[in-house]
Amino acid sequence: MDQEQGERPAAPLRIRLDFGYDGTDFSGWAAQPGLRTVEGTLSAALTTILRAEQPVRLTVAGRTDAGVHARGQVAHFDPDPTAWAALPGRSTRTPAEAALSRLRGILPADIGMRAVAVAADGFDARFAALQRRYLYRLADRPELVDPLRRRETVVTKRALDVESMHAAAQELLGLNDFGAFCKRRAGATTVRTLLDYSWRRAEDGTLEATVVADAFCHSMVRSLVGAVVPVGEGRKGVHWPAEVMRAAVRDAAVVVMPPHGLSLEEVVYPDDAGLAVRARESRVRRTLDRSEPPSA
Amino acid sequence: MDQEQGERPAAPLRIRLDFGYDGTDFSGWAAQPGLRTVEGTLSAALTTILRAEQPVRLTVAGRTDAGVHARGQVAHFDPDPTAWAALPGRSTRTPAEAALSRLRGILPADIGMRAVAVAADGFDARFAALQRRYLYRLADRPELVDPLRRRETVVTKRALDVESMHAAAQELLGLNDFGAFCKRRAGATTVRTLLDYSWRRAEDGTLEATVVADAFCHSMVRSLVGAVVPVGEGRKGVHWPAEVMRAAVRDAAVVVMPPHGLSLEEVVYPDDAGLAVRARESRVRRTLDRSEPPSA
Known about the structure:
Two copies of one chain form a homodimer. The relative contact order of chain A is 0.18. Chain A is globular, with a radius of gyration of 21 Å. The longest helix of chain A has 18 residues, at 272-289. Chain A folds into two domains: 12-128, Pseudouridine synthase I, catalytic domain, N-terminal subdomain (Alpha-Beta Plaits, 2-Layer Sandwich), CATH 3.30.70.580; 131-265, Alpha-Beta Plaits (2-Layer Sandwich). Chain A has eight helices and ten strands. Chain A is 28% helix and 22% strand. The first copy, chain A, has 296 residues and is of the alpha+beta class. The A-B interface holds A 20-22, 69, 71, 104, 109-115, 142-143, 145-152, 263 and B 20-22, 69, 71, 104, 109-115, 142-143, 145-152, 263.
């Protein structure tokens, strides 16, 4: 009896959602009263299909700002197991299959639900994430803008030299204090590991940045882009962004670029065996840091 | 005196426009009273900047249907030379530069003007065109649809075998009567030369068709796609589309696919020396044929 009572409670049912969205018509991820947000829209849809009495609460990998897009967003929620099991009704589908089908039926066209699955033990969309990968799209001539991709392409006033932008970006890699590129939040760390920051000219002539880090502080990707654009224009030297970074205080010369060029492309998690360990580690580290949630 | 009067009049001023559009919110290219069309919108913008008394009339390379997109559309118009010369005002820009800048200022975001130029002698956007290239995008699983590209991606109900679709498409190449794939118009020829019709699975997992011909009859690309989709589904054999074609009469079993998967990507013209010759040839041939204008 004692032994049985001392056992850990069974792991709660946790559901992983993989999805994308066109951020154009959303006021960002985070639910806000009276505004159309991705979290609010998705939570309402889940609450409907689960017939939940309380709004379903979601935990997300990357809290995107208003206008920012996502192709590889991940979130989780913990449904009431009875409501979850009831989802297929009389059909032979699994609850996850039924949820995917019904979510696709009621979500608006600017949210694309890719997958619904029972999460592996220890999975946490936010704390188990190892890496987040963002993409930023720039056109340095207006004729490069494909009208069909105008919602995800930012036009610059001047022509850009992609080689010098890429060179400047390389100097920012590694474990650094990115305070110069972050909107400060009280008590939040701005130390991050920038794993990749590459610029290339894509086949269609636009400039694409790939930015990968363990996590991002607020407005960090858009500031990292804003820091190298003056280099590409020839107005700043190739070492300038690294100098700004070393000062570690927010620099008014760094422009926070517009949101609509930005998209969260991918969130990387450990395999199932590593998940439980990673979730525990992250929680401890973040608590010590009093860190804000990762966002862009 | 006689000699001077007998001389050909100076070639009229002809302007070439290169542009693209997101066809989602347009009722196609051709101007129609009370509807928002690409031609109507573009003509109104040109009429405004040229302060013309009569609406500017445009000739287009590919008359796209409602919902069809374009990345490489070409049109021409013949402005009053005095109004054209007045475009730069007191600036040092050329009239073409001034026109491009002012058009970009007043055109809506779903039309992207790439270039404005004085056309080479003999240029005709419609009759001088050698080839038109279209793209059609399909997703055979809903999770493949990037929410940012949902306006240009058609979702099929079943999984598709791209190899058999490509094989079926190869049997349609060459000079053929495409009457089976055209909406008939009285007195119009349906003989066309299909130069390329290829299917491939793109990097993002969607299926892309490239379709190139000298010209297209009405609904031809969307019917060519509709003819091979049942092959990809396994419902029809790989030779079925060619059999349908050989019957040369419109076949109800061929579905005209939705417009929003289609985009006019490129129009190919001869070099400047070849232009005048080509324009003369095309005009004669079309007149003999009593052919309808090329469209998709």
